[in-house]
Amino acid sequence: MSLLGGGIFKGMAVTLRNFVGSYFDKERLTTKEYAWRTDDKLPERAGDYPKEEAEQLSDTTTVTHYSRNFPMLLHDEGEPMDTVRCVACQICERECPPQCIYIEKSKDKMERGGNKAQFYPATFDIDVSVCMSCQICVEVCPFDAIVMNSQFELSTPDRFGGLLLRRDDLLKSNDYYHKIHPEEAAARDKRIADEKAAKEAKKKAAEEAKKKAAEAKAKAEAEAKAKEEAESAEKPAEAPAPTHTDAKKEDNGE
Amino acid sequence: MPNYELIQQDGLETSLLEVSMGPHHPSTHGVFRMDVKLDGETVVDLKPVFGYLHRNHEKLAEAMSYLASMPFTDRLDYFNSMTNNWAYALAAEQLIEIEIPERAEYLRVIMSELTRLVNHVSLVGFFVNDLGALGTPLLYAFREREKILDLFEQASGARMMCNYFRFGGLRCDVPEGWLDRTREVVDRFPKFLDEYEKLLCENEIILSRTQGVGNLSKELAINAGITGPMLRASGVNYDIRKVDNYGIYDRFKFRVPYSKGKVGDCYDRFMVRMLEMRESIEILKQALDGIEAGPIMGNAGKVFKPAKAEAYGRVEAPKGELGFYLVADGTTQPYRYRVRPPSFINLTVLQDMCIGQQVADAVIILGSIDIVLGEVDR
Ligand code: SF4
Ligand code: SF4
After folding, report:
1. What is this structure's pTM?
2. Which of A79, B16, B38, B103 could form a disulfide with B294, with the two C-beta atoms 3.0–4.6 Å apart?
């Protein structure tokens, strides 16, 4: 700092090095290129993003495999509404902090994937102008029916209707989920499979236990009967009286 | 306003000029207004006016489950959502007995120190921006910040509104390879800091504009309840990471930079933050070495329903002491929920620091406090 203005020149040298360096080293660039914007194909105005393209574009950014934006409803393979996982239990609606989910339960029940017939959502709206992408709904859902989408090209010229995602906009297949969040989806599928296996094992164990108990009971009964018979055979003279009254009682009862 | 004599010159009528700076003023870091009374260029009185961004955060939280408030804490100091999460989680974890797994503790420290880097590096950029160096330093700062935000996105799914902490741990584990990427960023950061210091710390314009401007004495700083880098710039060695040793901070070796025997001017506040970043890097390196695989969520049940109790959890947020005070009444919702925001309390000494300074200096004094209006107004 002996030379007045020396510090300023030092600073300027840094700026120069960054300026020149940015041509050779991407690390020095102060701007970032979106991976999907290499073709200069910018939409003319808001709302011009074709839906399929937006989905595809959102999919190719560098970090989207982890990012979340707004929720979507999962369905398994097949027709979306036939395999939708949501059972309209409305837990997410209740827990959503800014209260942006609106659900109407169906009147009838529907069977899915060999499970017990359950309700399904007749209406399922999420107002994404209110949603704050917090993921609480995903965490509280006991049926793994709602997960976060990473699609972000949602701009629309219609402020109210356009930002209210209806049930059919929200429905996405599990395959799509695997495409946008591969790690998370795999972990979730594994957990579901594990839980199902555990449940089945438990059911099986319970059934077996039941069977065993029944067998044991039958055996015990048979033994008791055999014993009784043996006893009655041994003492034919004494036994008949109580048996007789018992049978009589039963007759009366009927 | 203290008794003030206008500068009188022969034959000239002078009077005070009242200027309302803000709420839409580029230097006020959000919707904040300063009513200043000026005698020429000198500030003779200053009244901070805030509340334009009031969102009813505390009252809303009383009508919500404990977990549902977690995403809202992100929006307090939106630069540092991770430390906000931690403070709230700490308070809530006191209400019920939860064991926090080792890995979660390490990740909490890593996240919070990364947050400190994000905050300080951009604060310095904004501060120099207020001085009039438009663009360059801020862009360099944002370039580095971006790398850390990418890490946040990979871990939590969001760049700024992370909502990552949970009572008893973290929401999810970091993805594969995340720790290596973090190490890369952390290892490269000192190089950037060297360059940044070369760019700024010796610059004569910065020195002459910041040294001796906005002095805050040690006594006033303590009496006004100032915390964080601002308190340490006034010469008080006080850091909640050292005092409380919350989490696992007692396992790390780091120093607390504070400006001993200095006046506590804008330059000190700027330098304390520059030095603090180096210490954060030290902590990060130790944490990245120490972390091991394991579970990241404790034994917390699905429903959070503490018994009647009170709890206060505080952390050393990049801006100062961030505390959450909770009163539980045995239901799933808190009876009282109170935030002690550092920037709000640090802002209270603005008037004392500005009186007698030039009006252009009032802008950089405000910049050196480091406020975020989301936290001031809640
Ligand atoms: S992400 Fe959060 S705000 Fe959005 S619908 Fe789900 S719970 Fe509600
Ligand atoms: S998304 Fe999940 S929590 Fe919400 S109603 Fe459907 S099943 Fe219930």
Report:
1. 0.80
2. B103
